[in-house]
Amino acid sequence: MIYEDFASAQSFFLWSTFAVALVMGAVVNKTNFCTMGAVSDWVNMGDTGRLRAWVLAIAVGVLGVMALEAAGMVNVTSTFPPYRQANLVWLENVLGGVLFGIGMTLASGCGNKTLIRIGGGNLKSVMVLGVIGLIAYFMINPFPGSDQTLYSTLFYSWTNPAAVALSTNQDLGAMLFSDNVATGRMVMGGIVGVLLLAWAFKSADFRGNFDNILGGLVVGLAVLAAWYVTSNIAVNADGEMMSLQTYVQEWDMYAPADAVKPAAAGPLASQSFTFINPMGQTLGYATSGFDRTLLTFGIMALAGVIAGSLLWSLISRSFRIEWFASAGDFVNHLIGAILMGFGGVLAMGCTIGQGITGFSTLALGSILTFIAIVVGSAATMKVQYFLMMRG
What we know:
- By secondary structure, the chain is mainly alpha-helical.
- It has one domain.
- It contains 19 helices and five strands.
- The chain has helices at residues 6-31, 35-45, 49-70, 90-106, 111-119, 123-140, 150-154, 156-159, 172-176, 181-202, 204-207, 210-232, 244-249, 251-254, 276-287, 297-315, 327-346, 353-360, 364-390, and strands spanning 2-3, 87-88, 164-165, 234-237, 240-243.
- It has a three-stranded mixed β-sheet with strand order 1-4-5.
- The longest helix has 27 residues, at 364-390.
- It is globular.
């Protein structure tokens, strides 16, 4: 996908993201694909249907990335965010994952589910989106008149020193096959992907549930589609094929005088779906007066999922306005949103961003985050059940 000018390439980059997210939003609404619901069904009822749908999405991502990377069709090493970075921030992955798991349980859904609920008319989720967005924004961006962020103030001094500097990238293929990384990535991708796929389809109930299979398959394919598109858009700069990120980094040398330069080059790297940091990006975009230099993949993904969910809710006539049932319901959602904002940025992703997108790269940090989210969510449900029984 080569374009003769940056504006056309960027336009395709953004609108293709919206289109894939639109499909994903509609299908997730239709199939009730929900990662928090997956943990809830498993913990409270012993039903693994939606958990297997989540695992199917991961398997599709892992096997797809393995095949596409081996064919040289995707770049999942130099990405935004850097899942495979050599610096393993394990404490942030685990702590952030646990906080996110607790938060999504209190707020009745993960970041993606929050967007799906908004599309279905849930006003509670609008509040959750706003709170997550505010925290996510200031976790990364400094407070007005300061050089301090929430992350640097609350976390950096004690979480960052625990990071481990690896001699390789942190994906399983590179760590276990450092002498032949390409082969290692194929081997580990094949083994992990097939095992996940086998577990998902081991259940006869799952094999007979069209919605669970469709939901897992489409979410996994959407993650792959985004990896493919964002890895393959290039600009013809005087005969040299340049990625969008590289073009912006060399802006003064190649861009015409009337071209509009994006605010940052990083968000133009290859990437796939994640939803917590984009909520902060969306807040920044809105408060800037919709400055188009701030428009990113994440913002378009967020808008696409909401639009897709709204479209399906209108088609299926399931659109319903919903508000808080009580003051306690409001407090739970507020606390949940706060924890998801902190946890999602700290862990560098959510149940989609780390649990599927990051996991598809087989990054150890992503796998740790996935486990921590499930543990945090499951433990919270157990505590909620205990308190309910006591009451």
